[in-house]
Amino acid sequence: MASTAPDLDRQIAHMDDELLPVPRHKLHRWPHFAGLYAAEHVAATEFVIGATFVALGAGIWDILLGLLIGNGLAVLSFWLITTPIAIETRLSLFTYLHRIAGDSMSRLYNWANVIIFTAISAAMITVSATAVRLLFDIPAQTQAYPTSFEFILLALAVAAIVVLVAVYGFNALTEFASICAPWLMLMFTVGGMVLLPELAESVTGETSLNSFSSFIDVAGSTVFTGINSQGEAGIGIWEVIGFSWAANTFSHFGLIDMALLRYAKRMRSGLATSTGMMFGHYVAWISAGLMGAATAAVAGISIDVLEPGEVALHALGAAGFVIVVVAGWTTANANLYRAGLAAQSAMPNLSRNKATLAVGICVAVLSCFPFVYRSMLPLLTYAGLVLVPVGGIIFAEHHLFPKLGFSRYWARYKGVKHNTPALATWALSLIFGFGLEMVDVIPFYYLFLPTWFVSIILYTLKARSAGAADSYPKAEAAEREFQERVEALHAKQAETTNHAPVKDTSGLTKAIRAVWMVLGLAVPMVLALRVLFGSPDLASYEANREMFYDVTIWSTIIYFIFAYWELQRSKALFNKQSPKQAATAS
């Protein structure tokens, strides 16, 4: 073993970091993931999905209870399915799948991910462009295709910025996204609050809401009415639960978010996904529905063709422009990062930067077509159905095979480049899943669940007969040695890396934090509460709303300046720490 160590060390040193387990000194605690998921999942397309629930005719109690249950199930899925595998392997799904299933399966899967996350990234960029177009008086894009050359140029310009940041400045954007989360959550919340009196006036003739029951009456009769846009009975609570659970199926059951959660120190980080699910997919969807319904009523157009930019500007004034652009950019970059990882795995000769750039060009072209963001609900659901069987294959090999006495990595140990059981399982599971939809046995939102179980059973049976039940002692020993040498390399790197938590207790930092918390967040919240509860008539409502618009844009500017200033001070303090100080602090 000692004689092979130098050669193995040289091999590991030349490997791309993305192909190796995440070292311990790069791990993060749960607050990191709370901010990360809040920034990503409180996204500009929440305006689209919130409006979709209104158009589909969900009732108010279906929304309040259905979204709570469905998003709770999504959090549990992240915590119990994705996080354990991510922490135990410290690998992205793309790398782990290649070790398990070989070249052919990995290549097909990676290209499927490239297509899916390219579409999602493009949708986010298009949403941002719908806000920016208002500044240039570009016509609204109500068709599936672009009807304005100016809009095409605008979408390409917005996409170019997103792609270049993802390629060359992803770390900087990640830092920026981390400070966006509190502001995004606040803006989505207060947007619905500010427009509720307008909805109440259309129902009761009064602008004030005196109780929760009055909110239920107003929202139930104007927004979530139980009647769809065709005037027919809408979807019920089971559909709402199903969609909210399935919206991120590819991330939890499909294990895509191993790429993020592999950096988690402990299992509790899986629960930190609740910031994204409960704010982005609960509060934001409900609030976006309220904002969309009010904006559609004022504009006199169908909520089906309403653009997110129009909704945000009507609800939040100039700050609405910022929320659509920021939420679109931060989410587009996270998905473009995933698409870049998948593309790099499919084209290993390219660096992640070059792979991301190649994907970004496709994203830019696709972002010119509005039909992509208008199809978010089915896109997310069907994307989950396509990717979930692969999550079932990984789950089976990682959790079940050791318990059954099978060999994890059996195909690799056996020297099989094309894992036929995995390929066959994926194909048969897709036939099963889409077959269920064709015969309409269960709502398509729930198709991922039986498909996942079928993939686990099929792969276990097929792999058993293909060699998974055999033992490979030499290969297993070589794998253990590889992992030991990787850990040794990471231990050396940790000795020269500052990785201790740094707490800035200086007076200036406390003052900076107080400014962005009070002026940036508390003031808009107080003004929104004043609009909601301190507007006894229409005239006072309009005056309070105008004050909210005028002040909130300045609060937004103050928030980002001071929050970013605090972030830079924390980074500077961290960088001043010597390795010895860091080791002592840890």
What does this structure look like?
The protein has 586 residues and is an all-alpha fold. It has 23 helices and no strands. The chain has helices at residues 5-13, 30-41, 46-56, 60-89, 93-132, 149-168, 170-204, 212-222, 237-246, 258-261, 274-299, 308-316, 318-346, 352-366, 371-374, 376-404, 410-414, 420-439, 448-468, 473-495, 507-533, 538-576, 579-585. Helix 6 (149-168) crosses helix 13. It is globular, with a radius of gyration of 25 Å.
In short:
It contains 23 helices and no strands. The protein has helices at 5-13, 30-41, 46-56, 60-89, 93-132, 149-168, 170-204, 212-222, 237-246, 258-261, 274-299, 308-316, 318-346, 352-366, 371-374, 376-404, 410-414, 420-439, 448-468, 473-495, 507-533, 538-576, 579-585.
Break the fold down into its secondary structure elements and pairings.
Elements lengths: L4 H9 L16 H12 L4 H11 L3 H30 L3 H40 L16 H20 L1 H35 L7 H11 L14 H10 L11 H4 L12 H26 L8 H9 L1 H29 L5 H15 L4 H4 L1 H29 L5 H5 L5 H20 L8 H21 L4 H23 L11 H27 L4 H39 L2 H7 L1
Helix pairs in contact: 1-20, 2-7, 2-11, 3-11, 4-9, 4-11, 5-6, 5-12, 5-13, 5-14, 5-16, 6-7, 6-13, 6-14, 7-8, 7-11, 7-13, 7-21, 7-22, 11-12, 12-13, 13-14, 16-18, 16-19, 18-19, 21-22
